[in-house]
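Hi P.,

Sorry for the delay on this. The queue was packed all week, but I finally got your sequence through. Input first:
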Amino acid sequence: MERFFRGVLRHRKLVITLFVILTCLSVACIPQVKIDANMSDYLPTSAKSSQDLNDMKEIYGNDITNARVYVTGISQVDAASFDEQLKNQPGVTSVTWLGDEVDLDKPIEVANADTVKEWYDGEGYLYQCVFTSDVDQAEIDSIRSMAQALPDAQTVAIDGSAVSDAANMATINTDMAKIMTIAVIVVFVMVLLNTTSYLHPVVMLLTIGVAIALNMGTNIFRGTISSITQLVASVLQLAVSMDYSIVLLTNFGRYREKTDDQFEAMVMAMTKSFPVILSSAAVTFFGFLSLAAMQFLIGADMGIALAKGIVCSFFSITLFMPCILYNMRNAVEKTSHKPFFKSFNRMAKVCRAGAVPALIIAIVLAVPALKASGAVSFTYGSAANIAQDSQVKIDGDIINKAFGESQTWAIMVPEGNWAEENALVDELKALPTTKSVLSYSTIAGSALPHELADESQVKQLLNSGWSRIVLTSNIPDESKGAFDLVTTVRNICQEHYGDNYKLAGNAVSYADIKSVTTTDNTTVKMASILAIGAVLLVMFKSISIPIILVSAIEVSIWINEAVPYFTGDTINFVAFLVIDAVQLGAAVDYAIIFTEEYLARRKRMNKKDAAFQSVEKTAQPIITSSSILILACIGITVAVSSPMIQQVGELIARGAFISVVEIFFVLPLLFQLLDGFVRHTSYKIGFYQEGKGSSGAAGSSGAGSLPDSPTTTPAA
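Then the structure:
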């Protein structure tokens, strides 16, 4: 590896040129990557709601109602005119309003009052629409402007899942800019405080910036990524990858103290840092990749993007960063400054004094935290990701106040068995949550041959041997009542048609998401633990060390995940799933840095001194990296508009803090208490034994040990 890195540094111009070319190509590809905000699109193909929705789209050529438009103050004539205008708008597939339900050539007073009140509340008219899946905020704003231009129009409100998705997409660029600005500022300040040159933060940000561009650009080969992945992947890549660059900078600084030859110092730093960075990257890579074990395909979407980002960061930091840093060596020297933090001896003493209480607290909290983390309430739909002060949320409250909560499902059953279909329709009408049921028999009557019925109605209700029933219920998309209703409707359909029926709707998809992710939570935990444990097993050639590290970090994850349960908060399920892989991956990086140092020192001194000195020596890189993650995520929580991203930021910030506390307070004590277990379950560990001299010859000194470690005199 030393010969390889020497060659890389000698041909640094070629390496830099190659990275610049790849970065430019990647930046050009970024705008071509499609973003999808609809979580239902990521249901596994085996999910019944996914299959049913695809079949329904294929047969009927449109989706079910996914938007509502409410306009007050306008006359009936203008309302009819707006219906026609709305149908001709880009992004609108179909529109249903009062004129489709009653004969407006007759006085409205003689029409069925129950039907009228579903579409007209005395002040305004409601339009139920089907928007295309790719409708954007500009098209929705155009509809709003068109409604506001109607004579005497007063209130215009637009809501629905399609509107929520469009709003989420519209905020992505704004939120991305905020997220990256906060992250860059935090990285710059924290790296500046913990390094010895004003240019070090610039070099690190440039390196990670290249890695992020490479990762985002290569998403073009995947075609489409989720809006969640788009928002969180870059900042997580930035925060997690900082560990690797900090390791390189720290080792370079140490070797610079030993030689004036910066070329040799950089080669030795690259060689020394490589196994540590490789190990940390491998652990984080498999931690992120474990998300792909989810049945819910958002896991694979995020896991692949995050794991790919780690690969990009690994090569950027091990190859590109040393070349840039060496090329800027004179400027770095001229902008050097004294370290702001010279010693962490006091912190190490605090950690040693608080180790026993911290371990007791962790043991006491472990089981209750594990149980509480499994009882947290979740949200699943796009509406839950809308800020309370957003326009679509305000509009939704206005429409719900006028007409009540509403959602529309579609049921497909085989055509022709009218007695069975009428019985099904009657049962659906009898449900306490039902607002209306629309079917061929309710419009034309089952006795009327469909050849004689209105063609436009027949086309949307009878097609390809299927009969479609449209059920509208006065219940919100995401609630226990909605999920219970999905079960009830499915049971009713099965009673009449067995499995030969299809059911589609937002709450139906959310119910399947809930069902899938309930098992996914356990799957992701086990996959990430096994993957990371396997890497640690190979890395340390030890059975006990992976168990100790993963156990300590898992307890910190349980404590973090239990907080929403005790505070009574409802968490987006994606945020909750992500934290397992992210916190475990990030915390293991810190644990590896500490463990490498501890093992190197344990070869030359007793366990207590090794633990104490390891805390002091690894405090700077661990605190630098974790503080970047914590502060950046706190800033994101405050700045972005998406509640889901706020929850991700809060969970990661709190999780990183708890993990660092565990590593500095609990992990050193665990290594001391389990010293014999580690010695007897590790291959050639070579621990120092008092009274027998150092046994450090057995086994290596540890890839992550400080450059001065091999020459340190064993403790008495």
